[in-house]
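in:
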């Protein structure tokens, strides 16, 4: 007789989708505008796309008036130490140490005359180039349409900004559901993964989910959807529209953020699978389907790159961005001066690089009062457990007999490894100069896990696949699901503790009135 969990599996996963979306919405509402992991720049692009403007030349893309006013009113503090003196405090809770006299109140709380007096000065301070302006368009197009909907609904003041963040909740519910489909389809009969993967994804604490950014959750959603489609057409013959859909999802994943390049590894799987089936390989029908797949990837990419090259001479826009940041490409000989290739190279790959990437892949990077919202012991757990369980997953793969399980696990491992390797490669290619605080010339490491959070679903699947194997070796397999449940509770509890400051903030959505400020 099927267990209760088997009978109600979809209901349980639907509840996890709702719980994950609710968590993202609540935390998105708690974090004040605008967190310093480039959120003002991403929000400005959403505003631009909402108005129908798609940038192409970074040098001419300064913040829009709408963006600057939103930053000054809702992300800036104000104080009046003397009757004749007004002071503006830029990101007073994110980038400034906690003041003994208390955090300055937000500008929107000041009388109307005072707001009007500081707006010209504040907007002048934010008359800056948007160095994210040449990022690919998919997230900004979607978020721009969502932003226009919020305007049509007549949302007042800062609620329009939080409405933009609210899109993340709906997208995150989709990530949780796709994680269930991934585990169910490619690990048939494994109830632990079918429920455990969406459970851990729903609790995954990465803070990019709480802001306006192209890092997440659209990137994990599209990456998971593309991977699911690619594996499905690799494992069995499918109608040609599914090949076209898989290709379009790969293109959309890359055109959301270029650092999702690991999806290209999965793109190779259908072709490799065809080579193992000679009778199908010779079929013109199957060859035509592979052509549809490739064209569905290349045509959108070619259209975007061609448009950029024609308008600015920079196909991806990356050259404009890294020169604006003060970075320069190294010559071939200079690449080998990186610490990775020195006597302490293996140590550097583990720490700071490996541990930094894995820790920030789990928790993100938003600071609070100029300090990471992190606990060293939790970071160490994230990094060590990830390394151990991913190694267990590879060991378990060697004994896997089911073709779907082998293919999905091998592809997941390849995408995760490639994603991390791409950050290591980027770390060696640039002289980072002295304009940016991370990475720098003296600390040349891309350890921002948010850049590869697109691999969330395959990463969590591998993590739990390895965890289950480890518990089975210890004769504790029956405790696998309770262990993941306890892990999800502990993660959520630690995140609530670390986010106590944002939840108490006078700047967040919970403090905004509905009746004032256009």
């Amino acid at each position: 007789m099927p267990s209760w969990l088997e009978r109600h599996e979809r209901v349980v996963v639907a509840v996890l989708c709702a719980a994950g979306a609710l968590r993202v919405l609540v935390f998105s509402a708690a974090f004040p505008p605008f967190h310093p992991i480039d959120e003002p720049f991403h929000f400005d692009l959403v505003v631009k796309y909402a108005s129908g403007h798609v940038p192409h030349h970074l040098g001419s893309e300064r913040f829009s008036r709408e963006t600057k006013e939103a930053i000054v009113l809702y992300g800036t503090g104000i104080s009046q130490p003397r009757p004749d003196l007004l002071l503006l405090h830029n990101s007073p809770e994110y980038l400034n140490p906690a003041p003994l006299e208390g955090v300055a109140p937000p500008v929107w709380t000041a009388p109307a005359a005072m707001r009007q007096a500081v707006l010209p000065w504040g907007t002048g301070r934010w008359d800056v180039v948007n160095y994210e302006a040449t990022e690919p368009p998919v997230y900004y197009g979607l978020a721009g349409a969502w932003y226009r909907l919020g305007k049509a609904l007549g949302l007042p003041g800062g609620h329009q900004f939080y409405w933009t963040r609210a899109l993340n909740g709906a997208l995150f519910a989709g990530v949780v559901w796709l994680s269930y489909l991934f585990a169910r389809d490619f690990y048939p009969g494994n109830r632990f993964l079918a429920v455990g993967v969406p459970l851990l994804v729903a609790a995954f604490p990465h803070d990019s989910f709480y802001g306006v950014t192209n890092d997440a959750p659209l990137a994990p959603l599209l990456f998971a959807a593309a991977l699911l489609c690619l594996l499905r057409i690799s494992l069995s013959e499918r109608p040609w529209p599914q090949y076209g859909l898989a290709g379009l999802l790969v293109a959309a994943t890359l055109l959301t953020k270029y650092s999702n390049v690991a999806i290209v590894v999965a793109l190779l799987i259908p072709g490799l699978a065809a080579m193992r089936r000679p009778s199908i390989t010779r079929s013109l029908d199957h060859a035509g389907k592979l052509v549809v797949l490739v064209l569905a990837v290349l045509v959108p990419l070619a259209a975007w790159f061609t448009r950029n090259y024609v308008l600015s001479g920079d196909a991806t826009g990356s050259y404009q961005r890294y020169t604006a940041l003060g970075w320069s490409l190294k010559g071939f000989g200079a690449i080998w001066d990186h610490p990775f290739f020195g006597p302490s190279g293996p140590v550097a790959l583990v720490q700071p690089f490996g541990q930094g990437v894995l820790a920030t892949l789990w928790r993100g990077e938003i600071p609070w009062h100029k300090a990471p919202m992190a606990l060293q012991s939790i970071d160490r757990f994230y990094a060590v457990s990830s390394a151990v369980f991913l190694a267990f997953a590879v060991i378990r793969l060697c004994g896997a007999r089911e073709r779907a399980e082998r293919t999905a696990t091998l592809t997941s491992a390849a995408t995760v490894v490639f994603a991390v390797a791409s950050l290591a490669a980027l770390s060696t290619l640039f002289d980072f100069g002295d304009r940016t605080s991370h990475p720098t010339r003296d600390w040349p490491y891309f350890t921002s896990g948010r850049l590869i959070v697109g691999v969330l679903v395959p990463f969590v699947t591998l993590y739990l696949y390895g965890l289950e194997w480890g518990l089975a070796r210890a004769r504790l397999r029956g405790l696998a699901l309770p262990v993941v449940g306890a892990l999800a509770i502990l993660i959520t509890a630690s995140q609530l503790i670390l986010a106590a400051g944002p939840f108490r903030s006078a700047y967040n959505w919970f403090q905004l009135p509905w009746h004032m400020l256009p």
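note: Strands lie at 76-82, 85-90, 328-329, 367-368, 371-372, 430-431.
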